[in-house]
Amino acid sequence: MKHPYPNFRKIAFYEGISFLVLLFIAMPMKYFFGFPKAVTIVGSLHGVLFVAFGVVALEVMRTYKKKFGWLVKAGLASLLPFGTFYMDKEWKREEEEAIKSTAG
Hints:
The chain has 104 residues and is mainly alpha-helical. It has helices spanning 5-33, 37-63, 68-79, 83-103.
């Protein structure tokens, strides 16, 4: 993977969406409408995206020689509702800088 940042940002976006769907749609469907299958389905998808987020975050950290604190910050963003969306502006800037520095 030459530049993992684009994949990281895409996965972060979808992981953030799946988290919000789990919290605000699937869980109410389970607890208010008696439809636990919603949490099973959305929770499984979110779990896969969460693991993918972690794996690609490690790849970004390794490829661009990020400090461990960067990984901790990314991990916290994935645990907070809207966290990955909030961080995306910073990650986009970092992505642009990283790609520029390896292009020249």
